[in-house]
């Protein structure tokens, strides 16, 4: 008996199959449509979650508690972690700029620019002789060995010295001296400025930004802070969209490997337009450990030991002075209309002379207050 051909189907079976094919095709189409709907729904849900997360992230960055939250996260996971990288330092709130009227620092005539300031300092006849190892006259304005500086500095913490600086009254040079730029040595600022003929508040220490900055650095150096850890910064800042030349102080936190600013001029100031003294307690010592300092250009770093010309990228500095270095803040080539003298060119004969940090005992800073 020959084997049965199982591939053959009866006519009835073929008829049933032909009747079922549309039904099967319809079911397959419904299944595909359902799968596509699920995928679209999941994609939409994912988009909503991503958009919601982005909005929540932006709201977090704008939150008044963000600055303190960011600090706590960085302390917990470390400053080099991915979480820290996703939490940028927030900008200074406009409310604080208005409270301390910091836009005055850029509205009045002062440090005009990189070249103008360099010409004033390097060619000034009254600048004293350079000390051992110094390569710029800027450095001669940081005087930790001056008797009035030592007397005021000894026995005080960095926070207390900053509080001393906040008692100085900011007055623009054009009003105080009748000239756009006049730098006072720290001893002159502490002893002589209270009796200047045009001092609007006789008896009080008065000056523009640069004198306050390098005098505060002198005090910190006299108090024992290593030269690697403190510096004067000259550059350009922007408050409320208004940019101008300025001088401020920066301290290095060796534990967290980052610089933070001190703004001595955030204290009381004289408003020459109204003839009024505006009282202010000044920004807290650790304010710029939580908020970004609004610098847009850096011209020079210096103290009594180190000097750095950021335009020409030359000078002698410790390697930690390049932490956070931002090439975007280098002065543009068009701003360089001043060439240093052959004397200083010989002193700076090695570009980018970066030295290892010496065996020092740095000042330790506690976490900022809430």
Q: Please provide the ordered H/E string of secondary-structure elements.
A: HHHHHHHHEHHEHEEEEEEEEHE
Question: What's the helical proportion of residues?
Answer: 25-40%
Radius of gyration, CA atoms, in whole angstroms: 32 Å
The proportion of strand residues reads: 15-25%
General shape: elongated
Spatial gap, N to C terminus: 98 Å
Strand order in the sheet with the most strands: 5-4-3-8-9-10-11
Q: Output the structural class.
A: alpha+beta
Could you explain the architecture of this structure?
With 370 residues, the chain is α+β, with helices and mostly antiparallel strands. It has helices at residues 11-62, 66-77, 82-85, 94-99, 104-107, 114-122, 147-153, 158-166, 173-176, 186-191, 209-222, 342-347; strands at residues 169-170, 206-207, 230-239, 242-253, 258-262, 269-271, 276-278, 295-302, 307-309, 314-318, 353-355. The chain has one domain (93-355). It is 36% helix and 15% strand. A seven-stranded mixed beta sheet has the order 5-4-3-8-9-10-11. Strands 1-2 form a two-stranded parallel sheet. A two-stranded antiparallel sheet has the order 6-7. Helix 7 packs across helix 11. The protein starts with 10 loop residues before the first helix and ends in a 15-residue tail after the last strand.
């Amino acid at each position: 008996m020959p084997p049965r051909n199982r591939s053959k189907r009866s006519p009835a079976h073929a008829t049933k199959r032909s009747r079922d094919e549309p039904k099967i095709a319809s079911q397959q189409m419904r299944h595909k449509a359902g799968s596509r709907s699920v995928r679209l729904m999941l994609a939409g849900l994912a988009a909503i979650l991503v958009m919601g997360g982005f909005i929540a992230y932006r709201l977090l960055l704008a939150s008044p508690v963000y600055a303190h939250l960011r600090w706590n996260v960085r302390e917990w996971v470390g400053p080099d972690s991915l979480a820290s990288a996703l939490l940028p330092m927030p900008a200074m709130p406009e409310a604080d700029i208005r409270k301390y009227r910091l836009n005055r620092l850029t509205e009045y005539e002062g440090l005009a620019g990189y070249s103008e300031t360099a010409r004033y300092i390097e060619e000034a006849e009254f600048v004293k002789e350079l000390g051992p190892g110094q390569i710029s006259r800027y450095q001669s304005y940081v005087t930790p060995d001056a008797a009035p500086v030592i007397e005021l500095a000894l026995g005080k913490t960095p926070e207390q010295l900053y509080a001393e600086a906040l008692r100085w009254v900011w007055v623009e040079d054009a009003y105080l001296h009748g000239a756009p730029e006049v730098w006072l040595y720290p001893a002159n600022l502490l002893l002589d400025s209270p009796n200047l003929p045009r001092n609007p508040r006789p008896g009080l220490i008065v000056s523009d930004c640069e004198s306050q900055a390098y005098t505060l650095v002198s005090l910190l150096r006299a108090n024992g802070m290593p030269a690697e850890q403190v510096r004067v910064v000259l550059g350009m800042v922007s408050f409320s969209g208004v940019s101008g030349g300025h001088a401020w102080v920066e301290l290095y936190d060796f534990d967290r490997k980052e610089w933070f600013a001190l703004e001595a001029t955030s204290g009381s100031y004289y408003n020459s337009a109204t003839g009024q003294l505006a009282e202010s307690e000044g920004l807290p010592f650790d304010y710029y450990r939580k908020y970004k300092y609004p610098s847009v250009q850096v011209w020079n770093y210096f103290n009594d030991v180190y000097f750095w010309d950021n335009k020409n990228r030359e000078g002698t500095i410790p390697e930690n002075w390049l932490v956070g270095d931002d090439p975007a803040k280098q002065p543009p080539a068009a701003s360089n209309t001043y060439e240093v003298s052959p004397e200083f060119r010989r002193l700076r004969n090695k570009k980018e002379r970066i030295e290892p940090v010496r065996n020092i005992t740095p000042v330790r800073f506690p976490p900022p207050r809430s």
